[in-house]
Amino acid sequence: MKFDVEKIRNDFPVLHRKVYDKPFVYLDNAATTQKPVQVIEEIERVYKTINSNIHRGVHHLSDLCTGEYENAREKVASFINANHSHEVIFTSGTTGSVNLVAFSFGESFVGEGDEIIVSAMEHHSNIVPWQMLCERKNAVLKVIPINGDGELIMEEYEKLIGPKTRLVAVVHVSNAIGTRNPVERIIEIAHKQDVPVLVDGAQSVQHEKIDVQKIDADFFAFSGHKIYGPTGTGVLYGKEKWLDRMVPWQGGGEMISNVTFQKTTYNKLPFKFEAGTPNYTGAIAMAAALDYVGKTGLENIAGYEKELTEYAVSKLMQIDGLRLIGTPRKRTSVISFMIENIHPYDAGMVIDKMGVAVRTGSHCAEPVMDFFGVRGTIRASLVFYNTKREIDTLYDAVIKVKEMFN
Ligand code: PLP
Fold it and tell me: Which of 12, 109, 154, 227 is the most buried (most CB within 10 A)?
């Protein structure tokens, strides 16, 4: 192990609280991650020392705050290796980023009879905006199917893509079953037909080094709160060649160049897509989260999380009647399971009483649940501050569930 987990844990105050007088075990990291003091203190520092609305002031604090906001953009660009920092748009999260592309790309490039491809394992936020676009434009949504292990059927994808395809939108890592999709190959196939690809990186950016130029993604979306940053923050990366040709999403201050009642002209990138006062405090604190992750090292994080996930899967599989939902060959640290035919909500309540936070339900991915014929699952999602000791507590909690319901 390349880092000291106990030292890392000391940076996350909430991990040290108790729940029902028991040590708190937080295994709901795919929903949101906990925040290190470095991020919490950064929010406090901004409000205590430099808070001022950005871009439009000539006074000193406005200047300082603008500088830090733009510096945060540079940090994000370097974190994902974007070619230009103006290819980084700050949004409210992955949902905001996908909606931006579905509207702006849709208005600019999608017409009647055109096709958008998504996959059968998408989060609702990478389904519904495309359905809304298809309704508006009379376009058609096509779906890449998955197999019984919860992997995309790539041969079917190759058959779906054709001259009417305008865009492919696919999740990098499934939040419901943990599958890590071969986005590099998906993008290569799409680009052969000049079709751009949006990658939903909500569950990948915190687990592996993202290089948007290497994978050649046209758009890459993620949420700050899932990578140890504040809620209400997120990023849309888009290649300049697409963003430049897309109409703005929201209208308002900052996204304009000139306004008259006859005609308004729009600002250049990235401001064209950032109408109104942005969450500048959030963006600055998100950059502090990226610094934290960068300092720990994504290779170290990935190595540790892999070891922890293997331990968790092998430990849980010792339990009679426990069934994994999704058994892909390439997975990250999201583990979805059922215990016999006990309802996930019932199981979740018992697990909670042991101080363990897991998520139960459909995980905003109802089509995935339908595919596996379940109404929901129990999901444990791990990150680099979790420990084998915590996995053992989850194991004990699952045993307790079985005892109670049998
Ligand atoms: N995509 C995936 C794969 C997710 O897991 C989530 C959130 O769980 C989202 C999109 C939406 O993210 P947010 O709610 O932060 O916008």
Answer: 227
